[in-house]
Please model this.
Amino acid sequence: MGLPGRRAATLTSAALLLGVAAALAGCSSGAGPTTVAPGGASPATGSAASGQPSTPTVRQVNVTISDAGCDPQTLSIPAGPTTFSVTNTGSSSVLEYEIEQNGRIIGEVENVIPGIDRTFTLNLKPGAYILNCPGGTTAATGTLTVTE
Amino acid sequence: MLTVFLILLREGLEAALVVGIVVGYLIKVGRRDALRWVWIGIVAALATSLGLGILVFITIGDLPSAVQEPIEGIAAVFAVGVLTWMLFWMRRQGRAIKGELEGQLDAALRTGSTAALVGLAFVAIVREGLETALFLLALFRSAAATDQLSPALPLAGLAGLGVAVLLGTAIVRGAIRLNLRRFFSVTGVVILFVAAGLVASAIGAFVDAGWLPTGAPVLNLSGVLPETSPIGALLAGMFGYRAQPTMLQLVGYFGYLVPVLAYFLAGDRLNFGRRTRFA
Model:
């Protein structure tokens, strides 16, 4: 089941202003992430052959969720196949970690409880992404910057 | 531990409620013979969930949400379809029976497509079943592998599922004591709210899958009634409650609920006028 709480409370007022039209149009409020030159489709891999699926090195990024939300709240990593390992440091209210781009969720894990890490893997291209940790108090949203 | 209990209570409750509705319905309309197929559907659904869960668990460990969420969303859409069909079927029937004995139900109703009902029970279980199986497997592995995790955790999870089943059973027991007309009215309204919740769940799943755009929440009830609280979890499991609904989810929920409720109640009022003769 999706338990999709969405965005931070700070965005709520903006959302109310944007109202139905924006929601129906699918505009996620807030700065639409500007994708920085998505040119390099096949990222930082040494021996990358021509085929897309064979991407040998997967970078692992460890992140945590807590009552506050996403930790770290701002994240900057190089492009390429990346596994996010999400650890809950003790929250019973924040159990979900999502990465969003251009108003769409591109990867997420739910029901992350303390003691049981969950992972998801994405092939990240350079650009700006949004982190969501629904239910977080001060860091329910964050930013992810993927560099070349 | 409470968190684990509540997660599995929530995951199990929706399935228990939907299966309970199907079972109660078949009993009430005198189709106990069809219950056998429902039990087969339930066992098949549990076996599918556990079997696929174990397969995924030992091969790739976890199911990517890009796979899981579309399954959950499509299953929810199917469930909404069958539930809505049941609802209108019951409404029509509620008008027709005029309180006659339950055995005198319209033949069309009695022989009505049990396949759809069995399918509904199956889908309601598999929808969350695979995810639930994976979650439980992860709990058991952690409990076995590390000392810091108490073995109470998987037990708390199983208890959550158990309570969901008990609640579902209690609801059926209560519901089948009602006379047929009231059963149709009460069950109809319950179905309506369950289905509206499933509409919101389907939208949520398609958002999580990246098929639908995200949106900022238009309400934030996390402070008042978080989904992770006991009551929040109950409401989330049964009626698709969301502490932070998006506009899309609200529009989906009420866009389904309001017209269908209006139509259902209009039919029900016709019944009330003729009701006096029967118990």
Observations:
- The two ends of chain B are 47 Å apart (CA to CA).
- Residues 271-279 of chain B have pLDDT under 50 and may be disordered.
- Chain B has nine helices and no strands.
- Chain B has one domain: 2-277.
